[in-house]
Amino acid sequence: METLASLMALGEADTTTRQRRQLAEAAIAHATRGEWEDAVTANRELLELGPDIDANNRLGKALAELGRHAEALEAYEQALERDATNRIAQRNIERLRVLMAAKRPAANGKRRPEKAPATLFIEEMGKTGRARLINLAAPSVLAPLSAGDAITLEVDGDDLVAKVGKASIGSVEPRIAARLLKLIAGGNRYDAAITTIHEAGGELQIMIREVFTHPANFGKVSFPTQGASGPGIRPYIKGSALRYDDEDEVEEADEDSEEVEELDTTLPEYSSEPELEEELVEEP
User: What's the CA gap between 221 and 183, in Å, rounded?
Assistant: First the structure.
């Protein structure tokens, strides 16, 4: 009888483990598709089976995306109660408190910044590139932003300013801006989106895509590459438009940032040292 009872207990444990795994997979899938209500449901069902720090963090993310900041804060605080060193919970609690203290809409005047279309994140040699923003806005302006948010680029004298709605969030690093400013003056147009934003506000990177080439700029490359090889167009990310940024149990490569997978496109890094302005590269 004891053996039978033990076997039954093992069977129940296996069933619960399988349920937890299926619910976790469903929660992640809903999140990557932007189905935040379904993500909330899946994570709450998972938590009914027992404590789960990752589920608390995912629940907080989903609630935050829905603008339910008080509930999101509670979910992250529950994760922190179970693990006082959990970085995901720590940084999102700080971020939510900034948001709630600001008591104002997101930078574009809507509940959440708009997301960039998935097509922006398809790398095309010479047409797409990555750049760092400098002269970043105050933390209260950056707090509502996350990887994948669409931004606009506007010329302001010698600067190429990144904006969300009417709010400036920073300027494109000078070496890249100098090239794009010439092409924009010639009639080119560009779309952009955030790829990496550090919660502490120390770094913000964007993806830029050339969406219109003026005939006057024919043969001029927006983003020259070094040692490029292979096909000219390939997917920027796999499976979805954006990585679910709080899934650090899948990849903990950078705990301090939200980001989509990095481009292979090689761009010169920003340096504080003065440099000579580069000439536009002509295609052969």
Answer: 9
Give the three-class secondary structure for 134.
strand
Domain covering 2-102, topology: 1.25.40
Q: How far apart are CA 96 and CA 93, in angstroms?
A: 5
| Distance (Å, whole) CA 167 – CA 137 | 9
Note if the pTM is more than 0.90.
no
Q: How far apart are CA 18 and CA 24, in angstroms?
A: 10
For residues 128 and 87, give the distance between their C-alpha atoms in angstroms, rounded to a whole number.
32
What are the residue boundaries of the structural domains of the chain, listed by start?
A: 2-102, 118-259
Q: How far apart are CA 236 and CA 122, in angstroms?
A: 5
Side chain identity at 141, as an amino acid letter? V
pLDDT in tens, 249-258: 434 434 444 4
**Residue-wise pLDDT tens digits, 158-192:** 999 999 988 899 999 999 999 999 999 999 999 99
pLDDT > 80? residue 194: yes
Q: Residue 175 in contact with residue 273, Cβ under 8 Å?
A: no
pLDDT at 193 over 70: yes
3-class SS shares of the chain: helix, strand, coil, % to 5:
40, 20, 40
What is the C-alpha separation between 275 and 174, in angstroms, rounded?
A: 9
Domains 2-102 and 118-259 share a fold: no
The CATH code of the domain at 118-259 is 3.30.70.2330
Q: SS3 for 245? A: coil
